[in-house]
Amino acid sequence: MQLLLSVGLAGIAFTLPTTYFFQASLAFFYLMAFSSATHDIAADGFYMLGLNEKDQSLFVGIRNIFYRLSNIFGQGVLVMIAGYLMNRMENPAVAWSWVFGLCAVIMATMGIYHFFILPRPQSDTINNQRSIKELFVSFFSKKGIWTALAFILLYRLGEAQLTKIASPFLLEARENMGLGITTETVGLIYGTIGVIALLLGGILGGILAAKDGLKKWIWPMVLAMNIPNLAYVYLAYALPENTWVVTACIAIEQLGYGFGFTAFMLYLIQVSKGPYQTAHYALCTGFMALGMMLPGMIAGYIQEWLGYGQFFIWVCLCTIPGMLLIPKLKIE
Fold first, then answer.
1. What is the pTM assigned to this prediction?
2. Domain count, the chain
3. Residue 67: which of 292, 227, 232, 321 has the closest Cα?
4. φ and ψ at residue 20, rounded to 5 degrees
């Protein structure tokens, strides 16, 4: 799947400067989305097979850090590179073509590296006796599964919309009620201060969860993930011109995300426990992805209707339904 992702990235790189770039890029993005979803299932199952329960808790923060780092690499470092190249090239499409080409090389290199270096857990075996029907029946017959699925779908309702609009808000011209920050500066904010804050939050969350358990830390983690969204409400209404103020707000949001997302991933592991844990975890992450995709699809329309300020207030309100379900969850 990693090699297939590199093929999709290379396809975008080669077709961006052409006249049919739009249709071609959609086709390659479809290929990448399919490959990425399949890869996620394998990676999640591999994580559970290769680690015991304590290590799963300890490393869940580290794992989330690298997941978030990949997003920051795309939204931060690569955007900085693209901004640098666009300032020195006449054709922006060629600049982005070089960026996607770089991504293709990185992904292909990692795919080859992982083929040789990844461990092979003894528990990673094929069981032909398991039927698809049995996997689904055992999952949906778990006690409290419908409450759990509602929580999985709603927990990131606010974040799913925020992540789609945050970067456009930072880049939008000030006359359009954005912050008017340059592409390179946005990349720098996410790629430096944001990374440091994320690292600290994720590591702290993993250590505390491994030490005291999820039940003790779920509320502090949930609040740490959701309350910092108010920073964007402040930015939208105050429109500060000081870049350091903007950077501080984003750093707080990243710190809270790194700390709070640990609780969500540990809960998915608990829901998945049983004889089919890898398959059930794949189902959980599928619902998690659905909870991110559907709200994200309409985030742009909601923002255009409400404007940035009211949109970020709406995002904060969207965090409430997931929190209301927490007292009803079965947490070990």
1. 0.72
2. 1
3. 292
4. -105, 30
CATH code of residue 65: 1.20.1250.20
Over residues 195-210, the pLDDT tens digits come to 788 888 888 888 888 8
SS3 content of the chain, % helix, strand, coil (to 5): 85, 0, 15
Residue 39 domain flag: no
Closest CA to 260 of 292, 214, 306: 214
DSSP code of 129? T
CA angle (268 as vertex; 265, 272 as ends), nearest 5? 145
> Contact 281/263 with Cβ under 8 angstroms?
no
**Per-residue DSSP letter, 176:** G
Q: How far apart are CA 109 and CA 126, in angstroms?
A: 28
Residue-number span of the structural domain to which 68 is assigned: 56-89+144-328
Is the CB of residue 211 less than 8 Å from the CB of residue 88? no
Q: How far apart are CA 249 and CA 203, in angstroms?
A: 20
User: Is the distance from CB of 99 to CB of 78 less than 8 angstroms?
Assistant: yes
* 72 found inside a domain: yes
Instruction: Out of 36-50, 166-180, 211-225, 226-240, give the one with best mean pLDDT.
Output: 226-240
In this predicted model, what pLDDT tens digit does every residue of 267-325 receive, in sequence order? Answer: 888 888 877 777 888 888 889 888 988 999 999 999 999 999 999 999 999 999 999 99
The predicted-structure confidence for 149-180, as pLDDT tens digits, reads as follows: 999 999 989 989 998 998 889 888 888 888 88
Q: Which of 283, 192, 187, 179 is nearest to 238 (CA)?
A: 179
For residue 298, tell me if it sits in a domain: yes
- Whether 157 and 317 have beta carbons less than 8 Å apart is answered as no
- 37 domain residue, yes or no: no
- CA 7 – CA 30 distance, rounded (Å): 12
**Spatial contact of 172 and 186, defined as CB atoms under 8 Å apart:** no
Question: Residue 123's closest CA among 49, 47, 44, 53?
Answer: 49
Per-residue CA distances from 239 to 161, 172, 304 (Å): 20, 11, 18
